[in-house]
Amino acid sequence: MRLPLLLLLGFSSACFAKDATIQSPNGNIKITISDQQIMPSYKISFNGKDIIENSVLGFEFKQQAAFAEGFKIIDVQNTQHDSQWQQPWGERETVIDQHNEVAVTFSKSAPHAATYTVRFRAFDDGVGFRYEVPKQVGFENIEITKELTEFAIAGADKTTAWWIPARGWNRYEYAYNTTPLHDAALVHTPFTFKNADGVHVSIHEAALVDYASMVLNQRRPGTLQADLTPWSDGIAVKKHGAFNTPWRTIQIGAKAVDLINSDIILNLNEPNKLGDVSWVKPGKYVGIWWGMHINENTWGSGEKHGATTSETKRYMDFAAKYGFDGVLVEGWNIGWDGDWFFNGDVFSFTKPYDDFDIAELTRYGKQKGVQLIGHHETSGNVTNYRKQMEDAYALYEKSNVSQVKTGYVADGGNIKRIDDNGIVRKEWHDGQFMVNEYLHSIKLAAKHKLSINTHEPIKDTGLRRTYPNWIAREGARGQEFNAWGTPPNPPEHIPMLAFTRMLAGPMDFTPGIFDMSFNGLGADTNRPQTTLAKQLALYVVMYSPIQMAADLPRNYLAKPDAFQFIQDVPTDWQQSIAIAGEVGDYVVFARKERKRDHYSGNDWYLGAVTDEQARSIEVELDFLEQGKKFEAHIYRDGDKAEWKNNPYDLKIEKRIVTATDKLTLKLATSGGTAIRFKAL
Known about the structure:
By secondary structure, the chain is α+β, with helices and mostly antiparallel strands. It contains 13 helices and 38 strands.
């Protein structure tokens, strides 16, 4: 139903509306949009209490007058939506999209006449809104200098926030801070916080296309401003004619796990544009990767070179024997010698080192039923990569490669772009130029039936729905920091990521390290600060449709009982449920396998992890199908396990359970539990 608000409120067509309101389908969330302040504004309440107080809307431009003071509501259109759609792969097969929508049009009369619409969608689990600027006189060429959107947090002085800094040298790869909201100055999204009533909120964005990434800038205490990452010339966004912004998203939950169980980000993206994507395959892989991080191998050529034909065949043999789909090989191509961090100008993406025979490995992989997983490291020189991209993807397509890990290692703000005049420009990873550059690689890869796993990426905003070959990303501190990071990832890192970074979408965290002592045990060495059971639980907790068994093959063969869980666990799910958890403390997931390949679609898996605190968590098994029996294969911390000096104490048990049972999960310090519920 589409009715102008003027008629709904009983105004004549000559009158202007003052406020527009809309509620979520269950009535718990209410949005009020107003022109009664100096500038257009909105506010949001949850269960009758303000979550976002009056917050301004608008833009500033380099040439045109700002969308700011003097704009009034001239039209309101209301609609309702209730549908469901299916993911070709994902954390759940069927996604429900139920929301109420209001499109509010603001206008200002001469001498600086202009019109724009803000479209709000109210879901039961949060809010999305975006700006829609139509084609109009004087706005043919647009340079946005500032987006004025605010998020004024109600009760900010009693709010706790979890955040990483924005515009830092290390992009998104920081350990998270837990502070009062007032201490979060310039931060990345997803930005998660909890108010005094225990309501959890996360601000992010969806469908980031041809626009600058939004970070949040807290200038006036408690009020977060949208801060767009600029081009090298200082302009935030460059547009021509009509345009829509990404959706600004505000996920809201009465408890922490409500944020995880939300599908707002996906629902605000457009449906699949690629057509048949049956060639996009979830799965598990091993790789020539961890050995470089712990200094057993090198990316560059020489006697310790990891990416050799013989070493790759050895990994392919291992993959074939233990049920892995592919072998990632880093360091195969010309350009790694010397300090590769600065080699962006010299990388070749089609020429291998002499000791890497890609044609022979293609033949051998087909014989073994194992694919090469490609790797392209750009060291931040995207112009060099763009020039070779078509040939590089064509080579991979010919070589039976279906997935490519791309890398953009460079300090934040130091992406190398060469403009049309041959002048070097330095861009941010999350500015408009790079937003478009990343998406260009995805679209071109699709033409060659390649899926892309982007490292040093632009943050995930749900575009995997529109482009399902964007199969995973990094975008946070991954496992490699445990090899050489200063300091390594802390015990709280995983239960922190679950409620922050992971709200955006899949992460290629590369779990499964079985040898914690390559630098010695204890608390003061570079090593995974986890137990062995926690490493297993990561395969359920850290969602990705592609999961790596990241350790060296010999370390898996040394612990075959624990390795069995990695062999069993799928990467594609029919359903996923965050059962319990608190931000940065612990989290428990249950996921049901999707029927695919050799997976029946009947088994469930559970993963639970904790921070530095040992915990005992009671979990009801009511997610299991009623009336059915399951054999629970439980991989848990042993009674004497603790992460610092006894991480390997692992107990493996089996028992018969049903949906009416409960399990008590005893997690050691930085420990975990992984369970397969095998249907009987």
